[in-house]
Amino acid sequence: MDTVAKTSKAIDYIESNLKSPLxxxxxxxxxxxxxxxxxxxxxxxTKHSLGAYIRKRRAxxxxxxxxxxxxxxxxxxxxxxxxxxxxxxxxxxxxxxxPPSRHREIRNRVSYPRLxxxxxxxxxxxxxxxxMTPKIETLDSMKFVGMEIGPEELMNEELPxxxxxxxxxxxxxxxxxxxxxAYGLYSPTLEAESVTEARYIAAVPVSEFAESPEGYVDYxxxxxxxxxxxxxxxxxxxxxxxxxxxxxxxxxxxxxAREGFDMEIYKKDLHQEGIIRLAIPIRSTG
Length: 286
Description:
Elements: H1 3-15, H2 24-30, H3 35-46, H4 50-61, H5 63-68, H6 73-79, H7 85-96, E1 128-130, E2 135-139, E3 142-149, H8 151-156, H9 160-171, E4 182-189, E5 197-206, E6 217-221, E7 224-233, H10 238-249, E8 255-257, E9 262-266, H11 268-271, E10 275-284
Antiparallel strand pairs: 1-7, 2-7, 3-5, 3-6, 4-5, 4-9, 7-10, 8-10, 9-10
Helix pairs in contact: 2-3, 3-10, 4-7, 6-7
């Protein structure tokens, strides 16, 4: 089954279970993929975060019960598997502009229809030059000091990653034991059985941890196998590069995504030439 077929099968399964508990692991098993590989494939293929898609579709479908006026808002929130009335209200307001209690006053309602995946999604042009054949490298464990944003910021804020880097650079000179280069670290999820996923970390590597400035946090990433791509283009085109890696290169590579962080590596000597290095955690399927 190809990437488009597996993504469509996953969407069908999600749509059939909007009122049931869903985990990323369960959906991945349904389409016959590993947990980590599935998450990255879904985001790369559809340009939607899996957790955000599920939350938004549940909020949209809840309009039916709200329109009927038979249920309390808190009951509808739990019926559609939101963790609390507060979470449901926050997601609903981000979509429709008002809280669910004011639903009947909504004008020009925003819709969030189910995704429809076609093969054309797999043929987006990359805004740069991505080497088709990566280097397969074993990277050592690394220590980082950085700032992170989670799923709420990534879903709701305008330009969340650019704003994060702006905050990061303001005080980073106070970080001790800094090594060369800067890293953008992306992880699809914090917990294997959650659909509240995605965090992004702006960071620099360090030789040893020391006392970090306020707002900065220490991270340590275990070593392992990575597919390393050199990508020539702007940071705005990174999404297309990652789309290529996960939807076109990875399914035919003999590897699959494993637990870990995708790494955007901004090496000073390469970055001056407009080159960004992408390192994707992988393991052999053989």
